[in-house]
Design goal:
- The structure is a single chain.
- The protein is globular and about 40 Å long.
- 58% of the residues lie in helices and 13% in strands.
- It has four helices and five strands, in the order E-E-H-E-E-E-H-H-H.
- The chain has 151 residues and is of the alpha+beta class.
- Helix 1 runs parallel beside helix 2, helix 2 packs across helix 3 and helix 3 runs antiparallel to helix 4.
- It starts with 5 loop residues before the first strand and ends with a helix.
Length: 151
Amino acid sequence: MEDLPTSNNILTKDYIRKAIKILSDYCYDELFVLVDFVEESEECSFGSDPIDPDDLELIGDIEIGTSLDLEFQYYALIHEIGHAIIYCGKLESNDVVILETQAWVEGLKIVKKLGLKINEAEFRDQMMHALNLYHHEIKKSIWIFIDKEKE
């Protein structure tokens, strides 16, 4: 993308919209994944089930909640693209934290491949926040499991 969007590593909303469009087109054209933006939602996900009986080439869809800040939508899309790539390559780990880490890294590789920009500090913060949530949930479920075994 020619238009350099950053001033002190801050992305403009116009740049982010263009980058989201480029990533969405990449998903459809290269990964056969449809990107949907879901109104009044903060949920983001990749679903691997075929979603369109008229287009059996589609392998799934990515949903991004529009209640998120536009820049967070951009980073969530990058992450979900990573999940689609992992699914396509059959590289899914059984460890949730490792799988989620792989998704962030794979998505970032596509950003670099397409010549897109990110605010690295914001991207890192969103990535670490998400990974910490998964890590915390796993630790919590382990303690619940241990407590039930003691009963």
